[in-house]
Fold this sequence. Notes:
Layout: E1 12-13, E2 21-24, E3 37-50, E4 53-64, H1 67-87, E5 91-107, E6 117-134, H2 135-148, E7 152-159, H3 162-190, E8 197-204, E9 212-213, H4 217-220, E10 236-248
Antiparallel strand pairs: 1-3, 2-3, 3-10, 4-6, 4-7, 5-6, 7-9, 8-10
Amino acid sequence: MKHLRPSLIAQTTxxxxxxxxxxxxxxxxDEDNDDRRxxxxxxxxxxxxPTTHARITIMIEAREKTPKEAQSSIARRSNxxxxxxKAEEVEKLQTSGLxxxxxxxxxxxRPETWSSQSxxxxxxxxxxxxxxxxxxxxxxxxxxVVEKGADRISSFQLKATDEAxxxxxxxxxxxxxxxxxxxxxxxxxxxxxxxxxxxRIHVNDTGPxxxxxxxxxxxxxMAADAPPPTAIxxxxxxxxxxxxxxxxx
Length: 249
C-alpha cells in the first residue's frame, strides 16, 4: 500500500496589509507634549506548515429489539476495534460518544380514535471514537478499523501537531509585528517625521486553527462494505497572525 509523504519543509507565505491612521490623542500626553500624534499600523502574516497527522472519527451502529441487545451488540463489536487501536498505539484515543435511542414506527390514523399512534419497534445504539495517527499510517489504520468492525469513518481531518501550530503562530505574529514596525517607520520617514516610541501593541486573536478535511463528508461517511482510501496526502495548513501598533511621532 503506497502512502504519499507531505513536504517536511515549511513554506512561509507572508501577506501584509497596512492600515494607517493619523490622529491626535491627548490621552498619551507626556511632560513635553500634551498632544502626541499617533500613527496606527496593522499587519497580517501567515505561515504554512505541513499537515503531518490525521484525526479520524469512527462509528459503530447496532439495531436490536431490546436495549440490552443493542448495548451488547455495540460492546461485542467495539471491543476488538478499541483493542486494535490501543495495540497500534494511536494518539489521543478517546470514546467521544455513546447513545441508545428507541426506534418508533408510526401507524396511520384509526377511525375509532382519529389519531395516529407511535410504537417502539426496536432500539438503535451508536458508539463513536476518535484518534490521531501520522499521515503515513492513516490509510492503513483506516482500512484496518473497518475490517475490525467499524461501520463508518464519519470524519477524516488532516492537521499539524499542536506544537507545530503554536510555533508557526509565534512566527507569524513575529513577522507581522516586524512588518508593522518597518512600514510605520517608512511612512513617517517619507513624511519627514521621527518615531518617538511604540505606545501600544495589539495582538489579534485569530482563534483556533481548524484542521483540513481530507475529502467531502458525504464521501467519508461510508458503510463498511465501501473501503476507505489507502493513499493519503497531507498538504499544507495555513497559520495566521495579526498585529496592530500605535506609534508616537
